[in-house]
Amino acid sequence: MTRRSYFAAVRRFATLLGASAALASCDAGERLRELGDQPRTAHERYMRALADAGLEETVLGRDWIEASDSVLRAPHDVSLPFRETGVFLRAEVRAVAYRLSLSAGQRLTFAVRVDGLPLRLFVDLFEQTGDSARPLVLRASADGGVPEDSTAPPTSAGTMTFSLEHEARRAATYVVRVQPELLRDGRFEVLAAVAPILAFPVEGRGNGAVQSFFGADRDAGRRVHHGIDIFAPRGTPVLAATDGVVRSVRPNNLGGNVVWLSDPERGQSLYYAHLDTQVVTAGQRVRLGDTLGFVGNTGNARTTKPHLHFGIYRRGEGPVDPFPWVRRVIATPPPLVADTKRLGGEGRTTRSTTVVLNAPSARGDTLRTVPRDTPVQIVGAAGTWYRVELEDGVAGYVPARFTAPLRNSSQ
């Protein structure tokens, strides 16, 4: 393949879709065989298109495939909420991956906003497993970007957002990979946040109203608390935390006036107890936010202040801690202080410093300690930190204040 035909093929087929969901390093041929005949994601369809164009064995094609795999082997650990601004450069073949943990009951929202020429950006979410043969399992993939049937390179500038959501129904660790198509420039911003899967079940109340938690001793240690207690004045509306079907309103000795609400989408039942009164009936379908009853202290709560006992019972698991399912997350990511005008440029360290894997935190795993005047390329900014690449390809974070433009180096 001549140089001219090679780059013509790249420009023509870099607007198609495909790629990799495996973690282990292997050659391009093996990677393509793993895809089979039915690529599942835009990333995989793009890699298939590269193969159909004869580009998978070229240096550029192999580098793109290797980049998609290598970042999964060394993702950056981030705490949520997280914000980072970065750049993709057409002269570089790059990807970035972030690792994050979710508690059962949390919903992840991961959005990437791209400024510049329209491009295809592949955002894939993997769950980390304990299986060494299959350490990552694809869970979600973002949709968006230039239409797949586009045959001409895009030319107009604009802003696009690629986003995905995922509900964690058990505690787990995830890796999100972000990778652009070949030969595209662009500045991007990552925003990752968590929220509870369910709505708060008492009108006008929030986290501070929870005064008794899951697992607390009851009856002098003879049993444990299988829910949370949310205190509010008698008569405060109790709300459906999700769409569902009322399965039972039959009272019992412990709970007094109760409502059992089925959440079939998630294979669980929500339990509302100690109600003053119920306003729904068995078999009734309710929508998120509908009133089910009113706060009281019936059942074995007669000697306590009015409150709602709220519980979750999952099919095959029994009672689970409901607090992460309704706890409102009010934290915000650290403000972006690092100068984003330097993104995409070369720099140097102004003192001996460590390059850490985690972002943005000095507590991260140290990848390397580098001396003063070490050249770096600045590819991202989060808080007071730059994400940089060293000359040998190692990627990590350094304090922005310990860098300066390369042209000022005394070397």
Model description:
Helices cover 12% and strands 39% of the residues. It has 411 residues and is mainly beta. Strands 10, 13, 14, 15, 16, 17, 18, 19, 20 and 21 form a 10-stranded antiparallel beta sheet that branches. A hairpin with a 4-residue loop joins strand 16 (257-263) and strand 17 (268-278). Residues 1-28 and 146-156 have low confidence and may be disordered.
Defining traits:
nine-stranded antiparallel beta sheet, Jelly Rolls, disordered N terminus, Glucose Permease (Domain IIA), 411 residues, elongated, mainly beta, ten-stranded antiparallel beta sheet, SH3 type barrels
Short description:
Helices cover 12% and strands 39% of the residues.
Spans with pLDDT under 50 lasting ≥5 residues? Answer: 1-28, 146-156
Biggest beta sheet summary? 10 strands, antiparallel
The secondary-structure class comes to mainly beta
Distance between the termini: 41 Å
The helix content, as a percent range, equals 10-25%
Count of DSSP H/I helices: 5
The mean pLDDT is: 84
Q: What general form does the structure show?
A: elongated
| Percent range for β-strand residues | 35-45%
Assigned CATH architecture of the largest domain = Sandwich
Number of strand segments: 28
Level-1 CATH class name of the largest domain: Mainly Beta
CATH topology of the largest domain: Jelly Rolls
- How many separate domains make up the residues? 3
Oligomer: single chain
Cα gyration radius (Å): 26 Å
